[in-house]
Write a structure and sequence with these properties.
Elements: E1 18-20, E2 37-40, E3 46-50, H1 57-63, H2 68-74, E4 88-90, E5 104-106, E6 112-116, H3 123-129, H4 134-140, E7 160-162, E8 177-179, E9 185-189, H5 196-203, H6 207-213, E10 228-230, E11 244-247, E12 253-257, H7 264-271, E13 293-295, E14 300-301, E15 306-308
Antiparallel strand pairs: 1-2, 2-3, 3-4, 5-6, 6-7, 8-9, 9-10, 11-12, 12-15, 13-14
C-alpha cells in the first residue's frame, strides 16, 4: 500500500438548500448587497442568484467579486443587458472550460457534486469552474492536499472526484484527539454523531483508510461512541515502510528501525511525520540529517538504522 489514494467512490452530497440573502443595500466594504435568493453549495459558496427589482448584472457581479463580463458570459448575455426580477443567474461557468473539460454531475439545484477528470485538466481550472478553493476540494475528497507533492498527483485523468461534502451530525468531531510531536492526529475517541464522513472531512482520511487502520469497524454500521480510532497506518506495514517501531504509553510512535526498501516519504506517511529530518539532525557537520541513504533520488534509506519519529525526542549523531 502506498500513499493515500485519490479516487473517490463515495456518493455525492444531496441537494443543498436555497437561502435568502439579507435585505441590505450596501455592504460594509462599500459593495452593493443583494436581496434575492442565493443557491449555495455545501461550503457556503454561492453558485446561483435570483434577481429582484433593482438588480443589475453589474451589481450582482460586484457583490460576488466577479466582473460584469464574466457574469454575462456565464449566462449567455451581453454585458449591461437588463435583467428582470426573478432571473436566475449563474455565478459559475455553464460547462467545460480550459483546464476543466470533463463532465460533471449536478444535484437538483444545479450544484455540481462530482467531476470526472480529463487529460489536460488543471487544479486551477477545476477549482475555478466549480467555485471552490483548493482547501475545499481537498476536504470534499478527504485528502490532505490536492496539489502535486512529492510525485503524488491528485489531478489524474479518469478519476472521479467529489466537489461537495455530505451533511454530518453537528455533534460530530468533538471527541478527544491525540497528536504526535508534529501536531498530527494519531488517535481519536469517537462521540455520538461521528460517522465515516465526519471523520473523513475532519482528519482527511477516506472511509477505506479508516477501515484499514481500524479493522474492528464495519463500513455499513455506525461507529460506536467511545471508540479509540487510529488515524495513521502505524502498526500496518506499508510499501516503503516495512520496519518496526517503538511507542510511548499513549501509543505515539517514538523510534523506527529501517527495513530494506524503506523510503523517507513512506516512513513519514506511515507515522504522519511532517519533517522526519528535523528529528534526526547531526550534532556536528553540515548535513541535514545523520541517517544514511542508499539512493538519494528516491529517498531510500539504508536498512538497520534506528531513527527518531518524535520531534521532542530527537536522535542526534555526529554528521559526516
Amino acid at each position: 500500500m502506498g500513499l493515500a489514494g485519490c479516487t473517490q467512490t463515495e456518493p455525492p452530497a444531496p441537494a443543498h438548500p436555497t437561502t435568502a440573502a439579507p435585505e441590505v443595500t450596501t455592504a460594509s466594504n462599500g459593495k452593493p448587497s443583494l436581496r434575492g435568493e442565493a443557491v449555495i453549495d455545501s461550503f457556503g459558496n454561492v453558485d446561483y442568484y435570483t434577481t429582484v427589482s433593482g438588480d443589475t448584472l453589474a451589481s450582482v457581479a460586484a457583490a460576488y467579486n466577479l466582473s460584469e463580463a464574466k457574469v454575462a458570459e456565464f449566462n449567455a448575455l451581453q454585458p449591461s443587458s437588463p435583467v428582470g426580477p426573478g432571473t436566475k443567474l449563474r455565478l459559475i461557468p455553464a460547462g467545460p472550460i480550459t483546464g476543466a473539460n470533463g463532465a460533471a454531475t449536478v444535484d437538483p439545484h444545479g450544484i455540481p457534486t462530482s467531476y470526472k477528470v480529463e487529460t489536460g485538466d488543471t487544479l486551477s481550472g477545476i477549482t475555478y469552474r466549480f467555485n471552490l478553493t483548493q482547501e475545499q476540494l481537498a476536504e470534499a475528497n478527504k485528502v490532505p492536499f490536492t496539489y502535486e507533492k512529492g510525485g503524488t498527483y491528485f489531478i489524474q485523468a479518469g478519476l472521479v472526484i467529489q466537489l461537495q461534502k455530505n451533511p454530518v451530525d453537528n455533534r460530530s468531531g468533538k471527541g478527544k484527539t491525540v497528536t504526535n510531536s508534529f501536531g498530527q492526529p494519531v488517535f481519536y475517541t469517537t462521540v455520538d454523531g461521528d460517522s465515516f464522513d465526519s471523520l473523513g472531512y475532519k482528519f482527511r482520511s477516506t472511509t477505506e483508510q479508516i477501515l484499514l487502520y481500524n479493522p474492528a469497524l464495519t463500513a455499513d454500521e455506525p461507529i460506536p461512541a467511545g471508540s479509540i480510532l487510529r488515524l495513521i497506518p502505524g502498526e500496518l506495514k506499508i510499501e516503503g515502510a516495512q520496519g518496526t517501531f517503538t511507542a510511548n504509553a499513549e501509543g505515539i510512535p517514538l523510534t523506527y528501525t529501517t527495513a530494506p526498501g524503506d523510503t523517507e516519504r513512506q516512513i513519514s506517511f506511515r507515522f504522519s511525520i511532517t519533517d522526519l529530518r528535523a528529528a534526526n539532525r547531526p550534532t556536528t557537520g553540515t548535513g541535514g540529517t545523520w541517517y544514511e541513504a542508499v539512493d538519494l533520488p528516491t529517498g531510500e534509506l539504508a536498512p538497520g538504522q534506528t531513527i527518531s519519529l518524535a520531534l521532542d525526542k530527537p536522535i542526534n549523531k555526529p554528521g559526516l
